[in-house]
């Protein structure tokens, strides 16, 4: 993908010692934390922030997520998550995120599908995004619509034959 400079820089974080596992580098669970935090940062960007969630009892739920691990991350390393909106409709969004270090090395990739859910009646139910949030989401989708889709998205998980 040649247009990484056009992706949204949605989150920056530093690898903390609690993210490091028995192998001496960031554990797989910690990549999940970083990408989950990045999804929350994107929610904030489009107005599904803490105040909205408290006032409406609505939020985004993760329907599907996949992480590809490329390189190790170590304590103290500065990480950035860049985001691309791949698709969206009135209730759902499909995101691609890449985790890079300060040098720009790709460390991990993540794909997520999220859905707007209301719990206002006590049970979680899909619900349309509020107008301003949908407008922001669609503006990001439009801005990203001409960008090349990362080849990683077409790869399936599994064992190669050979």
TrEMBL record:
GO molecular function of the protein, one example?
hydrolase activity
In terms of Pfam families, this protein maps to:
4HBT_2
| InterPro entries membership | HotDog_dom_sf (IPR029069)
Query: Per its UniProt entry, which superkingdom is the organism in?
Result: Bacteria
Instruction: List the keywords (alphabetical).
Output: Hydrolase
What is the protein name for this chain?
Acyl-CoA thioester hydrolase
What is the protein's species of origin?
Rhizobium subbaraonis
């Amino acid at each position: 993908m040649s247009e990484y400079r056009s992706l949204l820089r949605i989150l920056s974080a530093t690898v903390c010692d609690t993210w490091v596992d028995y192998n001496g580098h960031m554990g797989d669970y910690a990549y999940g934390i970083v990408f989950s935090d990045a999804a929350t940062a994107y929610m904030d960007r489009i107005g599904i922030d803490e105040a909205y969630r408290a006032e409406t009892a609505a939020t985004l739920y993760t329907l599907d997520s996949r992480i590809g691990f490329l390189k190790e991350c170590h304590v103290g390393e500065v990480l950035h998550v860049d985001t691309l909106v791949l698709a969206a409709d009135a209730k759902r969004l499909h995101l691609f995120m890449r985790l890079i270090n300060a040098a720009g090395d790709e460390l991990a990739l993540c794909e997520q599908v999220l859905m707007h859910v209301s719990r206002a009646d006590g049970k979680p139910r899909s619900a349309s995004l509020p107008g301003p949030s949908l407008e922001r989401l669609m503006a990001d989708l439009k801005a990203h619509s001409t960008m090349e889709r990362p080849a990683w998205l077409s790869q399936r998980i599994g064992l190669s034959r050979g």
